[in-house]
Amino acid sequence: MKKWSKRILGTIVAVLALLVFAFMIWAQFDYDASQQATSYVETETPRELTFGKETSDVGFIFYQGAKVDAAAYSYYGNQLAKDGHFVIIPKLPFRIALLDANEGLDIVEEYPQVKKWYLIGHSLGGSAASTIVEQHSKIKGIIFLASYPIDSIDVPSLTVYGGQDGVLPIADIEKSKQNVRKDAVFHEIKQGNHANFGMYGPQKGDNRSPLTSKEQQDEALDEIKQFIDMP
Hints:
By secondary structure, the chain is α/β, with parallel strands linked by helices. About 35% of the residues lie in helices and about 20% in strands. It has helices spanning about 5-30, 35-40, 75-80, 105-110, 125-130, 170-175, 215-230; strands at about 45, 50, 60-65, 85-90, 115-120, 140-145, 155-160, 185-190. Helix 3 (about 75-80) links the parallel strand 3 (about 60-65) and strand 4. Helix 3 packs across helix 7. The chain is globular.
């Protein structure tokens, strides 16, 4: 079997495995946005949440974690919009990003005035986003929050993860380094956990963190801002 055929087969197997895992999560849990998170919502439609101006030079598309309400990530949108960026958090089917990962490509086409885009994804949302990151010339990079790519990617990337994450083992983050470029950036929030990358309360299987969600996300945002400013 040719090398490219093996890679395609491997990607299909990985996606199917993640879909099975996502379904198992879907069947058991549902995480709604906290009151704090909803206070940061700017504009909401049945399809998505938007922050900032669509005429901004830089846009972000945020893929929610499995079974997490899209509004749970509104703080990122609020803060990035304050820096002059445009942010969209699509409400993906059944709150499972893998079921419509291509939504990001449609968003890029819908807002032609945005010059360059970055994808952000939490947990399974990041893995879903990785499947389209190389499919549009305007997408310049990807940010993984407690996440990693499904297969090898050749774009700039930032991975931010928690040292006390009880859902995603750090060993998986280390292993994922073989699937990103050598200039990929990794940042550990030593006291961070999995759920604090959103604002939806505790998550089953996760460890407790002394940080608040806002504190953890502020550190992640600092890394994101440095990442997009890199030459």
